[in-house]
User: What shape does this take?
Amino acid sequence: MIPTNTDVTFQIASKPAGRGSSVAVFITEGKSKRHPDHPLLTADQRHAIQRLQQTGAATGKLAEVRFDLLKGDDKIFAPLWAVGLGKPEKINTEAIRQAAAALARACRKHKLKKLALVVAAVDGISTSDVAEAIVTGFLLASFDFTEFKGTGHAKDDDKPAPSAAAVTLLTDDSAAVKQGLYRGRIIADGQNFARTIASRPGNVINPPALAKVAQQMASEVSLHCRVLDERQMSRLGMGGILAVGSASATPPRMIVLEHRLGGGKKKRAPLMVVGKAITFDTGGVSIKPADKMGRMVYDKCGAMAVLGLMYTLAKLSIDVPVVGIMASAENTLGGTAYRPGDILKMYNGVTVEVTNTDAEGRLVLADALAWGIETYHPTAVVDLATLTGGVIVALGSTMAGVMSNSDELVAELQVATEKTCEKFWRLPLNDDHRNYIKSDHADIVNSAGREGSPLQGAAFLSFFVPRDDSVPWAHFDIAGVAETEKVLPCYGKGATGWGVRTLLQWAMSK
Assistant: This one.
Protein backbone atom coordinates (compact mmCIF):
# COMPACT_ATOMS: atom_id res chain seq x y z
CA MET A 1 0.00 0.00 0.00
CA ILE A 2 1.29 3.45 -0.85
CA PRO A 3 1.74 5.79 2.13
CA THR A 4 -0.85 8.58 2.35
CA ASN A 5 -0.71 9.62 6.05
CA THR A 6 -4.49 9.39 6.37
CA ASP A 7 -6.51 6.79 8.25
CA VAL A 8 -10.09 7.62 7.25
CA THR A 9 -12.45 4.95 5.95
CA PHE A 10 -15.75 5.49 4.11
CA GLN A 11 -18.90 3.45 3.69
CA ILE A 12 -22.31 4.12 2.18
CA ALA A 13 -25.73 3.72 3.81
CA SER A 14 -29.28 4.42 2.71
CA LYS A 15 -30.91 4.14 6.13
CA PRO A 16 -31.43 7.07 8.50
CA ALA A 17 -28.71 7.57 11.04
CA GLY A 18 -29.60 6.23 14.46
CA ARG A 19 -30.51 8.45 17.37
CA GLY A 20 -27.12 8.05 19.00
CA SER A 21 -25.12 8.73 15.86
CA SER A 22 -23.11 11.87 15.18
CA VAL A 23 -24.56 13.29 11.96
CA ALA A 24 -23.39 16.12 9.71
CA VAL A 25 -25.58 18.04 7.26
CA PHE A 26 -24.65 20.74 4.76
CA ILE A 27 -26.59 23.99 4.94
CA THR A 28 -26.49 27.10 2.77
CA GLU A 29 -26.20 30.77 3.59
CA GLY A 30 -29.23 32.96 3.16
CA LYS A 31 -32.38 34.40 4.71
CA SER A 32 -34.40 31.17 4.64
CA LYS A 33 -34.61 29.41 8.00
CA ARG A 34 -36.40 26.35 6.67
CA HIS A 35 -34.74 23.21 7.91
CA PRO A 36 -34.00 20.44 5.41
CA ASP A 37 -36.77 17.88 5.13
CA HIS A 38 -34.48 14.94 4.46
CA PRO A 39 -35.72 11.36 4.90
CA LEU A 40 -32.31 10.24 6.09
CA LEU A 41 -32.56 12.39 9.22
CA THR A 42 -34.62 11.73 12.32
CA ALA A 43 -37.09 14.33 13.55
CA ASP A 44 -34.71 15.22 16.40
CA GLN A 45 -31.91 15.82 13.93
CA ARG A 46 -34.04 18.03 11.69
CA HIS A 47 -35.17 20.05 14.70
CA ALA A 48 -31.55 20.47 15.78
CA ILE A 49 -30.68 22.02 12.42
CA GLN A 50 -33.68 24.30 12.70
CA ARG A 51 -32.56 25.46 16.16
CA LEU A 52 -29.05 26.19 14.93
CA GLN A 53 -30.36 28.29 12.05
CA GLN A 54 -33.13 30.10 13.89
CA THR A 55 -30.85 31.12 16.75
CA GLY A 56 -28.19 32.31 14.33
CA ALA A 57 -25.65 29.85 15.69
CA ALA A 58 -25.26 28.38 12.20
CA THR A 59 -25.33 30.85 9.31
CA GLY A 60 -24.32 28.53 6.49
CA LYS A 61 -21.21 30.55 5.62
CA LEU A 62 -18.65 28.57 3.67
CA ALA A 63 -16.66 26.16 5.86
CA GLU A 64 -18.47 27.21 9.05
CA VAL A 65 -19.04 24.21 11.34
CA ARG A 66 -21.51 24.35 14.24
CA PHE A 67 -23.08 21.61 16.31
CA ASP A 68 -26.09 21.09 18.57
CA LEU A 69 -26.25 18.37 21.22
CA LEU A 70 -29.34 16.22 20.82
CA LYS A 71 -31.10 15.56 24.12
CA GLY A 72 -33.79 13.18 25.25
CA ASP A 73 -34.88 11.52 28.50
CA ASP A 74 -32.29 13.56 30.41
CA LYS A 75 -29.55 12.03 28.27
CA ILE A 76 -27.25 13.77 25.83
CA PHE A 77 -26.88 11.98 22.55
CA ALA A 78 -24.28 12.54 19.83
CA PRO A 79 -24.14 15.99 18.18
CA LEU A 80 -25.76 17.17 14.97
CA TRP A 81 -23.25 19.10 12.86
CA ALA A 82 -24.28 21.88 10.48
CA VAL A 83 -21.63 22.60 7.84
CA GLY A 84 -21.81 25.73 5.70
CA LEU A 85 -21.62 25.61 1.90
CA GLY A 86 -21.92 29.37 1.40
CA LYS A 87 -24.38 31.20 -0.82
CA PRO A 88 -26.39 28.84 -3.06
CA GLU A 89 -25.47 30.66 -6.26
CA LYS A 90 -21.75 30.29 -5.52
CA ILE A 91 -21.63 26.62 -4.60
CA ASN A 92 -19.24 24.59 -6.75
CA THR A 93 -17.11 21.50 -6.18
CA GLU A 94 -14.40 23.58 -4.49
CA ALA A 95 -16.92 24.92 -1.97
CA ILE A 96 -17.98 21.35 -1.20
CA ARG A 97 -14.33 20.32 -0.82
CA GLN A 98 -13.66 23.19 1.58
CA ALA A 99 -16.79 22.45 3.62
CA ALA A 100 -15.84 18.77 3.92
CA ALA A 101 -12.30 19.80 4.87
CA ALA A 102 -13.64 22.05 7.64
CA LEU A 103 -15.74 19.15 8.94
CA ALA A 104 -12.66 16.90 8.96
CA ARG A 105 -10.79 19.44 11.08
CA ALA A 106 -13.73 19.69 13.50
CA CYS A 107 -13.71 15.90 13.83
CA ARG A 108 -10.01 15.98 14.64
CA LYS A 109 -10.46 18.76 17.18
CA HIS A 110 -13.26 16.93 18.99
CA LYS A 111 -11.60 13.50 18.56
CA LEU A 112 -14.67 12.12 16.82
CA LYS A 113 -14.10 8.62 15.52
CA LYS A 114 -17.43 7.92 13.80
CA LEU A 115 -19.60 10.23 11.73
CA ALA A 116 -22.55 9.97 9.36
CA LEU A 117 -22.65 12.64 6.62
CA VAL A 118 -25.69 13.34 4.47
CA VAL A 119 -24.67 13.72 0.82
CA ALA A 120 -26.39 16.93 -0.24
CA ALA A 121 -28.15 17.49 -3.53
CA VAL A 122 -26.61 20.54 -5.19
CA ASP A 123 -28.16 22.24 -8.21
CA GLY A 124 -25.97 21.91 -11.29
CA ILE A 125 -23.60 19.34 -9.77
CA SER A 126 -24.09 15.60 -10.18
CA THR A 127 -24.42 13.44 -7.07
CA SER A 128 -21.24 11.56 -7.98
CA ASP A 129 -19.30 14.84 -8.28
CA VAL A 130 -20.68 15.99 -4.92
CA ALA A 131 -19.53 12.74 -3.32
CA GLU A 132 -16.12 13.01 -4.98
CA ALA A 133 -15.65 16.54 -3.66
CA ILE A 134 -16.71 15.49 -0.15
CA VAL A 135 -14.28 12.60 -0.07
CA THR A 136 -11.33 14.53 -1.53
CA GLY A 137 -11.88 17.49 0.80
CA PHE A 138 -12.20 15.30 3.87
CA LEU A 139 -9.11 13.25 3.02
CA LEU A 140 -6.94 16.21 2.03
CA ALA A 141 -7.71 17.96 5.32
CA SER A 142 -7.14 14.71 7.24
CA PHE A 143 -3.58 14.41 5.95
CA ASP A 144 -1.02 14.70 8.73
CA PHE A 145 2.61 13.82 8.07
CA THR A 146 3.34 11.76 11.17
CA GLU A 147 5.94 9.27 9.95
CA PHE A 148 8.52 10.64 12.38
CA LYS A 149 6.17 11.35 15.30
CA GLY A 150 5.06 9.16 18.16
CA THR A 151 8.43 7.43 18.57
CA GLY A 152 11.05 7.44 21.28
CA HIS A 153 9.96 9.27 24.41
CA ALA A 154 7.04 11.18 22.91
CA LYS A 155 4.09 11.44 25.26
CA ASP A 156 0.58 10.48 24.20
CA ASP A 157 -0.42 14.15 24.41
CA ASP A 158 2.25 14.97 21.81
CA LYS A 159 0.83 12.54 19.29
CA PRO A 160 -1.54 13.98 16.67
CA ALA A 161 -5.23 13.46 17.32
CA PRO A 162 -6.84 11.13 14.78
CA SER A 163 -9.42 12.46 12.37
CA ALA A 164 -12.76 10.67 12.10
CA ALA A 165 -11.71 7.09 11.49
CA ALA A 166 -15.00 6.00 9.91
CA VAL A 167 -17.35 8.15 7.82
CA THR A 168 -20.71 6.87 6.59
CA LEU A 169 -22.13 8.67 3.55
CA LEU A 170 -25.92 8.77 3.83
CA THR A 171 -27.69 8.84 0.47
CA ASP A 172 -30.71 7.62 -1.44
CA ASP A 173 -28.58 7.39 -4.61
CA SER A 174 -26.04 4.77 -3.61
CA ALA A 175 -24.83 4.01 -7.14
CA ALA A 176 -23.82 7.62 -7.86
CA VAL A 177 -22.24 8.11 -4.44
CA LYS A 178 -20.29 4.86 -4.79
CA GLN A 179 -18.88 6.10 -8.08
CA GLY A 180 -17.88 9.44 -6.58
CA LEU A 181 -16.44 7.80 -3.47
CA TYR A 182 -14.26 5.49 -5.55
CA ARG A 183 -12.97 8.32 -7.73
CA GLY A 184 -12.49 10.76 -4.83
CA ARG A 185 -10.61 8.24 -2.71
CA ILE A 186 -8.10 7.50 -5.49
CA ILE A 187 -7.58 11.16 -6.36
CA ALA A 188 -7.05 12.14 -2.72
CA ASP A 189 -4.78 9.16 -2.14
CA GLY A 190 -2.69 10.18 -5.16
CA GLN A 191 -2.41 13.75 -3.92
CA ASN A 192 -1.66 12.68 -0.34
CA PHE A 193 0.92 10.20 -1.63
CA ALA A 194 2.60 13.11 -3.40
CA ARG A 195 2.46 15.15 -0.18
CA THR A 196 3.91 12.28 1.84
CA ILE A 197 6.99 11.81 -0.33
CA ALA A 198 7.38 15.59 -0.67
CA SER A 199 7.47 15.82 3.14
CA ARG A 200 10.16 13.19 3.66
CA PRO A 201 13.47 14.87 4.53
CA GLY A 202 16.64 14.81 2.48
CA ASN A 203 18.30 12.21 4.69
CA VAL A 204 15.46 9.81 3.79
CA ILE A 205 14.63 10.73 0.20
CA ASN A 206 17.52 11.20 -2.19
CA PRO A 207 17.49 10.48 -5.94
CA PRO A 208 18.11 6.69 -5.68
CA ALA A 209 15.58 6.44 -2.82
CA LEU A 210 13.01 8.36 -4.86
CA ALA A 211 13.63 5.97 -7.75
CA LYS A 212 12.90 3.06 -5.40
CA VAL A 213 9.63 4.69 -4.28
CA ALA A 214 8.60 5.11 -7.92
CA GLN A 215 9.51 1.50 -8.73
CA GLN A 216 7.51 0.16 -5.79
CA MET A 217 4.47 2.28 -6.69
CA ALA A 218 4.72 1.26 -10.34
CA SER A 219 4.77 -2.40 -9.36
CA GLU A 220 1.66 -1.93 -7.21
CA VAL A 221 -0.46 -0.19 -9.86
CA SER A 222 0.95 -1.75 -13.04
CA LEU A 223 2.93 1.14 -14.47
CA HIS A 224 6.20 0.64 -16.31
CA CYS A 225 9.13 2.27 -14.54
CA ARG A 226 12.48 3.05 -16.14
CA VAL A 227 15.39 4.60 -14.25
CA LEU A 228 18.45 6.16 -15.88
CA ASP A 229 21.48 6.20 -13.58
CA GLU A 230 24.50 8.50 -13.76
CA ARG A 231 26.40 6.21 -16.15
CA GLN A 232 23.52 6.06 -18.62
CA MET A 233 22.97 9.82 -18.38
CA SER A 234 26.67 10.40 -18.98
CA ARG A 235 26.58 8.31 -22.14
CA LEU A 236 23.51 10.27 -23.28
CA GLY A 237 25.25 13.59 -22.66
CA MET A 238 22.90 14.96 -19.99
CA GLY A 239 25.31 17.63 -18.79
CA GLY A 240 22.75 19.62 -16.79
CA ILE A 241 21.44 17.03 -14.34
CA LEU A 242 24.89 15.48 -13.94
CA ALA A 243 26.40 18.85 -13.01
CA VAL A 244 23.72 19.64 -10.46
CA GLY A 245 24.21 16.29 -8.73
CA SER A 246 27.98 16.16 -9.07
CA ALA A 247 28.84 17.02 -5.44
CA SER A 248 26.31 14.75 -3.77
CA ALA A 249 27.12 11.39 -2.23
CA THR A 250 23.89 10.16 -3.81
CA PRO A 251 24.01 10.39 -7.62
CA PRO A 252 21.20 11.81 -9.79
CA ARG A 253 18.45 9.78 -11.39
CA MET A 254 16.10 10.27 -14.34
CA ILE A 255 12.95 8.41 -13.32
CA VAL A 256 10.40 7.58 -16.01
CA LEU A 257 6.88 6.21 -15.44
CA GLU A 258 4.87 5.01 -18.43
CA HIS A 259 1.07 4.60 -18.46
CA ARG A 260 -0.59 2.69 -21.30
CA LEU A 261 2.15 3.20 -23.84
CA GLY A 262 1.55 0.88 -26.77
CA GLY A 263 -1.72 -0.31 -25.23
CA GLY A 264 -5.12 -0.41 -26.89
CA LYS A 265 -6.06 -1.14 -30.48
CA LYS A 266 -4.22 1.87 -31.90
CA LYS A 267 -0.84 3.12 -30.78
CA ARG A 268 -1.22 6.75 -29.73
CA ALA A 269 1.45 9.32 -29.02
CA PRO A 270 1.46 10.11 -25.30
CA LEU A 271 1.09 13.19 -23.21
CA MET A 272 4.22 13.97 -21.23
CA VAL A 273 4.55 15.53 -17.77
CA VAL A 274 7.95 16.42 -16.33
CA GLY A 275 8.76 17.37 -12.75
CA LYS A 276 11.72 18.88 -10.95
CA ALA A 277 12.87 16.57 -8.15
CA ILE A 278 15.66 18.30 -6.27
CA THR A 279 15.56 16.19 -3.12
CA PHE A 280 17.45 18.88 -1.23
CA ASP A 281 18.77 22.23 -2.40
CA THR A 282 21.57 24.03 -0.59
CA GLY A 283 22.04 26.32 -3.56
CA GLY A 284 25.44 24.75 -4.17
CA VAL A 285 28.42 27.10 -4.40
CA SER A 286 25.90 29.97 -4.68
CA ILE A 287 24.70 28.87 -1.26
CA LYS A 288 21.31 29.87 0.12
CA PRO A 289 20.87 31.75 3.40
CA ALA A 290 20.55 29.40 6.37
CA ASP A 291 17.16 30.84 7.31
CA LYS A 292 14.44 28.45 6.12
CA MET A 293 16.88 26.33 4.11
CA GLY A 294 15.22 23.33 5.75
CA ARG A 295 12.11 23.99 3.67
CA MET A 296 14.13 22.99 0.61
CA VAL A 297 12.91 19.44 1.24
CA TYR A 298 9.93 20.71 -0.78
CA ASP A 299 12.07 21.47 -3.82
CA LYS A 300 10.92 18.15 -5.24
CA CYS A 301 7.22 19.06 -5.30
CA GLY A 302 7.00 19.44 -9.08
CA ALA A 303 8.00 15.81 -9.49
CA MET A 304 5.70 14.78 -6.64
CA ALA A 305 2.76 16.09 -8.66
CA VAL A 306 3.95 13.82 -11.48
CA LEU A 307 4.20 10.89 -9.07
CA GLY A 308 0.68 11.44 -7.73
CA LEU A 309 -0.72 11.91 -11.23
CA MET A 310 0.74 8.66 -12.52
CA TYR A 311 -0.73 6.80 -9.54
CA THR A 312 -4.22 8.17 -10.15
CA LEU A 313 -4.07 7.51 -13.90
CA ALA A 314 -3.23 3.88 -13.28
CA LYS A 315 -5.74 3.32 -10.47
CA LEU A 316 -8.57 4.95 -12.42
CA SER A 317 -7.56 3.09 -15.63
CA ILE A 318 -7.64 6.31 -17.67
CA ASP A 319 -7.35 5.28 -21.31
CA VAL A 320 -4.80 7.90 -22.31
CA PRO A 321 -1.08 7.19 -22.76
CA VAL A 322 1.02 9.37 -20.46
CA VAL A 323 4.74 9.51 -19.71
CA GLY A 324 5.83 10.98 -16.39
CA ILE A 325 9.48 12.01 -15.93
CA MET A 326 11.05 13.00 -12.61
CA ALA A 327 14.45 14.65 -12.99
CA SER A 328 16.12 14.10 -9.63
CA ALA A 329 19.36 15.35 -8.10
CA GLU A 330 20.64 16.72 -4.81
CA ASN A 331 22.22 20.18 -5.14
CA THR A 332 24.92 20.43 -2.53
CA LEU A 333 28.51 21.48 -1.85
CA GLY A 334 31.76 19.57 -2.21
CA GLY A 335 35.02 19.35 -4.07
CA THR A 336 33.26 18.05 -7.17
CA ALA A 337 30.48 20.64 -7.18
CA TYR A 338 29.77 22.60 -10.33
CA ARG A 339 30.71 26.27 -10.17
CA PRO A 340 29.70 29.68 -11.50
CA GLY A 341 31.63 30.12 -14.72
CA ASP A 342 31.36 26.46 -15.75
CA ILE A 343 30.01 25.77 -19.23
CA LEU A 344 27.77 22.73 -19.58
CA LYS A 345 26.71 20.89 -22.69
CA MET A 346 23.11 19.71 -22.45
CA TYR A 347 21.46 16.63 -23.96
CA ASN A 348 20.32 18.49 -27.09
CA GLY A 349 23.70 20.18 -27.63
CA VAL A 350 22.80 23.60 -26.22
CA THR A 351 25.65 25.01 -24.12
CA VAL A 352 24.96 26.77 -20.84
CA GLU A 353 27.20 29.16 -18.91
CA VAL A 354 26.55 28.72 -15.21
CA THR A 355 26.12 32.07 -13.51
CA ASN A 356 24.32 30.82 -10.41
CA THR A 357 24.40 27.26 -9.07
CA ASP A 358 21.14 27.96 -7.25
CA ALA A 359 19.37 28.15 -10.62
CA GLU A 360 19.66 24.38 -10.81
CA GLY A 361 16.07 23.25 -11.36
CA ARG A 362 16.01 24.44 -14.95
CA LEU A 363 19.18 22.44 -15.65
CA VAL A 364 17.67 19.12 -14.59
CA LEU A 365 14.37 19.90 -16.32
CA ALA A 366 16.14 20.88 -19.55
CA ASP A 367 17.76 17.48 -20.01
CA ALA A 368 14.50 15.75 -19.12
CA LEU A 369 12.49 17.81 -21.60
CA ALA A 370 14.91 17.43 -24.50
CA TRP A 371 15.44 13.71 -23.96
CA GLY A 372 11.79 12.96 -23.24
CA ILE A 373 10.50 14.76 -26.33
CA GLU A 374 13.04 13.07 -28.58
CA THR A 375 12.35 9.64 -27.07
CA TYR A 376 8.56 9.64 -26.75
CA HIS A 377 7.35 12.14 -29.38
CA PRO A 378 4.55 13.45 -27.13
CA THR A 379 1.50 15.32 -28.39
CA ALA A 380 1.87 17.86 -25.58
CA VAL A 381 4.21 18.50 -22.65
CA VAL A 382 3.64 20.06 -19.23
CA ASP A 383 6.42 20.60 -16.71
CA LEU A 384 6.12 21.61 -13.07
CA ALA A 385 8.81 23.04 -10.82
CA THR A 386 9.37 25.06 -7.68
CA LEU A 387 11.58 27.20 -9.87
CA THR A 388 11.71 30.80 -8.67
CA GLY A 389 10.92 32.98 -5.69
CA GLY A 390 10.03 35.63 -8.24
CA VAL A 391 6.75 33.93 -9.06
CA ILE A 392 5.73 34.37 -5.42
CA VAL A 393 6.58 38.07 -5.63
CA ALA A 394 4.43 38.33 -8.75
CA LEU A 395 1.45 36.12 -7.87
CA GLY A 396 1.61 35.44 -4.15
CA SER A 397 0.88 32.04 -2.67
CA THR A 398 -2.59 31.43 -4.11
CA MET A 399 -1.77 30.65 -7.73
CA ALA A 400 0.95 29.23 -9.93
CA GLY A 401 2.47 30.95 -12.92
CA VAL A 402 2.25 29.31 -16.34
CA MET A 403 4.26 30.14 -19.45
CA SER A 404 3.66 28.39 -22.73
CA ASN A 405 4.19 28.27 -26.48
CA SER A 406 0.56 27.25 -27.06
CA ASP A 407 -2.65 29.19 -26.50
CA GLU A 408 -4.63 25.99 -27.07
CA LEU A 409 -2.76 24.05 -24.38
CA VAL A 410 -3.19 26.84 -21.85
CA ALA A 411 -6.92 26.92 -22.67
CA GLU A 412 -7.15 23.16 -22.05
CA LEU A 413 -5.42 23.53 -18.69
CA GLN A 414 -7.70 26.43 -17.80
CA VAL A 415 -10.76 24.25 -18.45
CA ALA A 416 -9.24 21.60 -16.17
CA THR A 417 -8.82 24.09 -13.33
CA GLU A 418 -12.48 25.12 -13.52
CA LYS A 419 -13.24 21.83 -11.77
CA THR A 420 -10.14 21.46 -9.64
CA CYS A 421 -9.79 25.15 -8.62
CA GLU A 422 -5.99 24.89 -8.57
CA LYS A 423 -5.46 28.45 -9.79
CA PHE A 424 -2.82 29.70 -12.18
CA TRP A 425 -2.09 32.88 -14.13
CA ARG A 426 -0.43 33.07 -17.53
CA LEU A 427 2.80 35.05 -17.76
CA PRO A 428 4.48 36.15 -21.02
CA LEU A 429 7.18 34.30 -22.91
CA ASN A 430 8.76 35.63 -26.10
CA ASP A 431 12.06 36.31 -27.85
CA ASP A 432 12.78 39.30 -25.61
CA HIS A 433 13.05 36.89 -22.69
CA ARG A 434 15.15 34.43 -24.69
CA ASN A 435 17.55 37.19 -25.74
CA TYR A 436 17.82 38.26 -22.10
CA ILE A 437 19.59 35.02 -21.19
CA LYS A 438 22.02 34.91 -24.12
CA SER A 439 25.64 34.30 -23.06
CA ASP A 440 28.89 35.86 -24.30
CA HIS A 441 30.70 32.54 -23.89
CA ALA A 442 28.02 29.89 -24.47
CA ASP A 443 24.58 29.72 -26.03
CA ILE A 444 22.71 30.83 -22.91
CA VAL A 445 23.25 31.52 -19.20
CA ASN A 446 21.25 29.71 -16.55
CA SER A 447 20.43 32.98 -14.78
CA ALA A 448 20.61 36.66 -15.70
CA GLY A 449 19.83 37.99 -12.24
CA ARG A 450 16.61 38.60 -10.33
CA GLU A 451 14.81 40.70 -12.93
CA GLY A 452 11.82 38.78 -14.32
CA SER A 453 13.14 35.54 -12.87
CA PRO A 454 10.06 33.37 -13.63
CA LEU A 455 10.20 34.55 -17.25
CA GLN A 456 13.91 33.80 -17.42
CA GLY A 457 13.25 30.29 -16.17
CA ALA A 458 10.65 29.63 -18.84
CA ALA A 459 12.81 31.25 -21.53
CA PHE A 460 15.67 28.94 -20.55
CA LEU A 461 13.45 25.85 -20.79
CA SER A 462 12.13 26.94 -24.18
CA PHE A 463 15.57 26.12 -25.63
CA PHE A 464 14.86 22.45 -24.87
CA VAL A 465 11.53 22.08 -26.63
CA PRO A 466 11.17 22.31 -30.43
CA ARG A 467 11.70 25.94 -31.46
CA ASP A 468 9.09 25.64 -34.22
CA ASP A 469 6.41 25.15 -31.51
CA SER A 470 5.47 21.81 -33.08
CA VAL A 471 5.10 20.35 -29.59
CA PRO A 472 2.68 22.27 -27.36
CA TRP A 473 4.44 22.94 -24.06
CA ALA A 474 3.50 24.63 -20.80
CA HIS A 475 5.75 25.36 -17.83
CA PHE A 476 4.22 25.70 -14.36
CA ASP A 477 6.25 27.58 -11.77
CA ILE A 478 4.65 26.30 -8.57
CA ALA A 479 7.01 27.82 -6.00
CA GLY A 480 4.16 29.71 -4.33
CA VAL A 481 1.63 26.89 -4.15
CA ALA A 482 3.63 23.67 -3.68
CA GLU A 483 3.80 24.09 0.09
CA THR A 484 2.31 26.38 2.68
CA GLU A 485 3.44 27.83 6.00
CA LYS A 486 -0.14 28.46 7.14
CA VAL A 487 -3.29 26.36 7.29
CA LEU A 488 -5.36 26.63 4.10
CA PRO A 489 -8.98 25.50 3.57
CA CYS A 490 -7.99 21.99 2.43
CA TYR A 491 -4.38 21.80 3.59
CA GLY A 492 -2.40 21.94 6.79
CA LYS A 493 1.12 23.34 6.92
CA GLY A 494 3.53 21.66 4.51
CA ALA A 495 3.24 20.15 1.05
CA THR A 496 -0.04 20.58 -0.84
CA GLY A 497 0.32 18.16 -3.76
CA TRP A 498 -0.66 21.02 -6.08
CA GLY A 499 -1.14 19.95 -9.68
CA VAL A 500 -2.22 16.33 -9.27
CA ARG A 501 -5.92 17.05 -9.77
CA THR A 502 -5.43 19.54 -12.61
CA LEU A 503 -3.09 17.27 -14.54
CA LEU A 504 -5.50 14.37 -14.08
CA GLN A 505 -8.45 16.44 -15.29
CA TRP A 506 -6.43 17.57 -18.31
CA ALA A 507 -5.38 14.02 -19.18
CA MET A 508 -8.96 12.77 -18.84
CA SER A 509 -10.09 15.39 -21.37
CA LYS A 510 -7.80 14.08 -24.12
In short: The chain has a mean pLDDT of 93. The first strand starts at residue 9 and ends at 13. DSSP finds 14 helices and 19 strands in the chain.
